[in-house]
Amino acid sequence: MTDWHTWHGDFFQSIRTLVTGGAGFIGSHLTEALLALGAQVVVIDDLSGGDRANLEPLAQQAGNRLRFVEGSILDEKTLANCVQGCRYVFHQAALGSVPRSVAQPRLFTQVNVTGTLNVLEAARAAGVARVTFAASSSAYGDSPTLPKIESMPPMPRSPYAATKLAGEALMRAYGSSYDLDTVSLRYFNIFGPRQNANSAYAAVIAAFAKALLSDQQPVIYGDGQQSRDFTFVTNAVHANLLAARCDQPIEGEVLNVACGQRVTVTQLAKQMAQSFGKPKLEPVYEAQRAGDVKHSLADLTRVKQTLGYEPIEPFAAGLDQTMAWYAAALGQTCG
Description:
Elements: H1 4-8, E1 16-20, H2 25-36, E2 40-45, H3 56-62, E3 66-70, H4 76-83, E4 88-91, H5 98-103, H6 105-126, E5 130-136, H7 159-177, E6 181-187, E7 190-191, H8 204-213, E8 219-221, E9 227-228, E10 231-232, H9 233-245, E11 253-257, E12 263-264, H10 265-275, E13 284-286, H11 301-307, H12 315-329
Parallel strand pairs: 1-2, 1-4, 2-3, 4-5, 5-6, 6-11, 7-10, 8-13
Antiparallel strand pairs: 9-12
Helix pairs in contact: 2-9, 4-6, 6-7, 8-10
């Protein structure tokens, strides 16, 4: 377990914060860290992708420092109520999944774009100091240039990527137009405990864990040579906390959040099978999905210069923790 005081001291002690999507995968980890640092945390989540169970252990420890509101970022009145008195907003709420966005582009635009506008408007009205936004590396599209640098022209290949890019534009516009500082953190393939393995659109590590623990072969869409900069969730949380603490205006800057390391999907499947003691469960390959990109690798120069960010949990250690969590959650043990 990360000792967040080592990295962030007492900065967040007694500070009121709002985490949108705080019952979800990344949001609940961020909520946990903020509570450990002594913050007062309001969580708004409509539970369409989150789970109240992610917050239950935290609620028992935090008492009245945690307030959970079941509601949508499309509900302006509820959002305005939640943000009152907050100094920072961590905007994690969104619909995820590239393939689901291809199937439901209008819904994704409504939640991810209009919802983000609502969060910014509520934050502006409440006098919030800074909004940190969960952006996505999918904005880079399929440019062959590696590593991905924030100054590259965005080339979204899916409705999901387009909605996240629109969110970045709103962050930059509000950071330039109003007395509200903003920052967009472009996450690269975040993984870790609590990531939902039961969705039809589950992220690859979660999907592989569920398959392997069910004695099924993991399914790879494409030739398996596609590579990703897999980033353990602790690093995403760390970047959010650094962004909130930054003592200089960020003004909507886009910053990569990753580990700066490439792993192919085939390598990942075989490593996970080996770790679970099931090396004979070789991956099976199916057609590539619409909107998927071939390679992803982050340049971390700008985020290091702006926030002092360095990954604090490497890929291998994060993967070990994640697999142990899935094994426990599904009632099995790693081999």
